[in-house]
Write a structure and sequence with these properties.
The complex is a heterodimer of chains A (301) and B (317).
Chain A lengths: L1 H7 L2 H32 L3 H4 L14 H9 L2 H30 L7 H11 L6 H10 L17 H12 L4 H8 L4 H12 L1 H17 L2 H6 L9 H15 L3 H9 L6 H37 L1
Chain B lengths: L1 H13 L3 H7 L1 H19 L10 E2 L10 E2 L3 H8 L1 H34 L3 H12 L6 H12 L5 H8 L13 H28 L4 H9 L4 H12 L1 H12 L8 H6 L5 H4 L2 H11 L3 H28 L7
Antiparallel strand pairs in B: 1-2
Helix pairs in contact in B: 4-16, 5-9, 6-9, 12-16, 15-16
Classes of the chains: A mainly alpha (301), B mainly alpha (317).
């Protein structure tokens, strides 16, 4: 077998393998370089950056950019709010989604079909931004932390994934608990929840990433409230400031005159990293749950 | 005949009344119905607001005390050059994203499938999935950084190889905008989009490759004649699903990257809704534009679903 394999290594095969290796290395460079470059800029002196030529590491290393953003912006509060919404939404979503999904695994449940239909249709019917905004406003959800959590509670996509997973669990465990006199809620908490842990981890992670990355709800509902700002929203504001100011040579001359100053470009890089680092740190360890969720979801779709 | 009546009797014996079953299942009802009501509140009640599109909505008055104007808002929309441009931009960017996204993900998946060293393959996958988890804001920050005129790597390389003589302000030129959005999408999503293809490739029978090798097929023709046909079904399903979202060209990247000079090509329908509806407080016009988008999307989703059934693939709904 190995001999025949060796024989098959024709020059064309070798050339192909080399091409493959080069292609993959290029892919890695294109993926990682922009991130590494942003890190380098975030640790480099702001005015020095504008001279160009920063690639993989800072030329004039400084922590000044980070010090400035933590001093001048509302970043620590934003960080707290971002963490709070991520944690609270993930926990509530996992619990409520699995609870509804559990009732849908009961074949004789009177409202089973109606509930499934109500959720599935929400994947296709979207009332749009303005009616949604007016509703939230009428409900008192503007200038309110809960606007991050409540309107999106229990998504149809998560519900279908969890229900599909629950249906694959053999019913005998549940039945024996029922014979022992356990109620539906007890069975759900004590038996179903632990058994569905892998898929719950998946939807918790999807929810957490969504929550961490969203800024539009802050922008629309809580933009004027400093206490409810989020990290991504602060980054978005920094981004639009940088956008309006960078690119003109006159500006470069101005900032060069004032030494040791931050520039919109370096501020942008620093905030980008503050928002990206938590995800970059946890992602490699949780990758398998994300991939599992994708494949589970696509089975149903 | 007799059998039938017997069966009926048996069924009615087993069949408890609706209320009896509700009483029996009160725990299940308590576990699900409150959350369903919440969903109805946030997903369906706002549909009442669609009536604003047929009114001259003034926030001071109630929703039903408004002046009704029929289809005037829609007539205005379709005579408005800005809105027509927004439809064009939305469709153009969607199609570019769709085509680029599919082609790049399929090519990458096929090439990843050719990697025999598992450690190398896993590492490449981990790295290529990563940008998917960065928010659009972060990605836009990175795009601005890469394309910047003073220190961006793209201008740097182009200058170094003598392709251009002076830095190009890519983000300020309308002709580059759609391409930049497409490229940013590919950068962010190409790795992630390979997951489903790789999953369906893992179920290919290895004997197919051996048979192809016996027939004298090289690596390249195996990819074309074995791997590609094996994922054809997946490609068709994903393509059909995505056609339903053709008006969702994205909103964040265009909103964040689209500055003054490129506005004519960057604005999408979603941005139109935001601008007229939220920032200029013309709720009626914004809602009308939103309805246009929703209705077209629903029609597309259901036709795609029908088409999927016609082609003998699994239906989505």
């Amino acid at each position: 077998m190995s001999l025949s394999k060796l024989k098959k290594q024709s020059p064309a095969d070798i050339a192909f393998n080399i091409f493959l290796a080069i292609f993959m290395i290029l892919l890695v460079i294109i993926t990682l370089y922009p991130i590494v470059n942003t890190i380098a800029i975030s640790f480099n002196d702001g005015t020095d950056t504008l001279r160009g030529g920063i690639y993989l590491w800072p030329r004039v290393p400084t922590l000044y950019n980070y010090e400035t953003i933590f001093k001048t912006t509302n970043l620590d509060q934003a960080f707290l709010v971002s963490v709070a919404r991520t944690v609270i939404a993930s926990v509530l979503n996992v619990f409520f989604t699995s609870m509804v999904a559990y009732t849908l695994t009961k074949r004789d449940y009177v409202f089973g079909k109606a509930i499934t239909l109500i959720y599935v249709l929400t994947m296709y019917i979207n009332a749009g931004l303005i009616p949604g905004y007016l509703l939230n406003k009428a409900l008192g959800l503007t200038n309110n932390f809960w606007v991050y959590i409540i309107p999106g509670l229990v998504s149809a996509f998560d519900l279908i994934i969890v229900r599909t997973y629950m249906k694959s669990i053999p019913g005998s465990l549940m039945e024996s608990a029922e014979i022992d006199g356990a109620g539906e809620f007890t069975i759900f908490i004590k038996i179903m929840l632990p058994l569905t842990a892998p898929v719950l981890a998946t939807i918790a992670l999807f929810c957490a990433v969504n929550q961490w990355n969203s800024w539009f709800d802050t922008f629309i509902y809580n933009g004027s409230n400093k206490n409810l700002t989020t990290l991504q929203y602060e980054l978005m504001k920094a981004l639009s400031t940088a956008m309006n100011q960078s690119g003109s040579t006159q500006h470069v001359a101005n900032t060069e005159a004032a030494a040791n100053q931050v520039t919109p470009v370096s501020i942008r890089a620093a905030i980008t990293m503050v928002a990206a680092v938590p995800i970059l740190c946890v992602y490699p360890f949780l990758q398998k749950y994300f991939v599992q969720g994708m494949t589970l979801g696509s089975v149903k779709e | 005949m007799q059998l039938k009546t017997k069966k009926k009797a048996a069924v009615s014996l087993n069949k408890k009344t609706f209320w009896q079953r509700c009483c029996e299942q009160k725990v299940l009802i308590l576990m699900s119905v409150p959350l369903v009501l919440l969903k109805i509140l946030f997903a369906y009640v706002p549909l009442v607001g669609w009536s604003m599109a047929f009114q001259n909505y003034k926030p001071a008055k109630g929703l039903f005390d408004q002046q009704w104007v029929g289809l005037d808002k829609f007539k205005f929309l379709f005579s408005d050059n800005v809105f027509l441009h927004d439809i064009r931009n939305t469709l153009a960017m969607s199609v570019i994203n769709l085509v680029l996204g599919f082609v790049t993900a399929i090519i990458l998946a096929i090439l990843l499938n050719e990697l025999k060293n598992m450690f190398f393959k896993r590492s490449i996958q981990t790295i290529s999935y990563m940008p998917h988890f960065l928010s659009w804001i972060i990605v836009v920050g990175i795009v601005q950084n890469v394309l910047s005129t003073d220190s961006g790597i793209v201008n740097d390389l182009l200058l170094r190889f003598g392709i251009i003589n002076s830095p190009v302000n890519f983000l300020g030129e309308p002709k580059y905008f759609w391409g930049i959005v497409g490229a940013a999408n590919v950068w962010k999503e190409v790795g992630w989009n390979t997951i489903i293809y790789l999953a369906s490739m893992s179920s290919i029978d290895p004997s197919l490759y051996e048979a192809a090798a016996v027939d004298g097929a090289g690596r390249f023709s195996k990819m074309i004649h074995v791997t590609l046909p094996a994922i054809k079904g997946t490609i068709v399903i994903l393509l059909i699903m995505n056609i339903g979202h053709i008006l969702d060209a994205g909103f964040e990247v265009q909103y964040l990257l689209g500055s003054g000079p490129v506005q004519d090509v960057s604005e999408t329908i979603d941005i139109f809704v935001l601008k007229y509806g939220m920032q200029m407080n013309d709720y009626s016009l914004g809602t009308a534009a939103g309805i246009f988008k929703s209705v077209i999307s629903i029609i597309l989703v259901f036709s795609a679903n029908w088409l999927s059934g016609k082609l003998g693939e699994e239906r989505l709904i």
